[in-house]
Amino acid sequence: MLAVYPGSFDPVTLGHLDIIERGCRLFEKVIVAVSKNPNKSPLFTAQQRMEQIQSCTHHLTNLEIDAFDTLTVHYAQQRQAQVLIRGLRVLSDFEYELQMAHTNASLCGSIETVFLATSNEYSFLSSSLVKEISQFGGSVTHLVPQNVAVELKKCFTKNP
Q1: Which CATH architecture is the domain 2-120 placed in?
Q2: pTM beyond 0.90, yes or no
């Protein structure tokens, strides 16, 4: 069974990687689909985000990394996926994600949404939080892969 794990991944966090690895154990193949959302202003380009994910998931043989700029459910249809993977951290995530799952089902009833609860140690973690911490000079090495921590530091280091 083919599953798509969509998101902005700006940047990818250890929480995202937890969901990716667990998804790869559950499904024959997982596509991590990096969203190119024109309504957002990402810190990293879609290509950079794909490379960040690739560099810390090379050990997963049933994983593909791609980018898309359509409705998620349309992308999943194009790729002939049967499942969308969504991670849940807190109760407020569930309300939003359930609404999206119902919306996607109304657009394409043949694609199921599977929710994976984030592991406890990542339940507070978000890409926005990581960027804010990094922007103010805090260490994010315990929140993101090493390569991403280095790239974040470069983005937010002020030149004299």
Answers
A1: 3-Layer(aba) Sandwich (3.40)
A2: yes
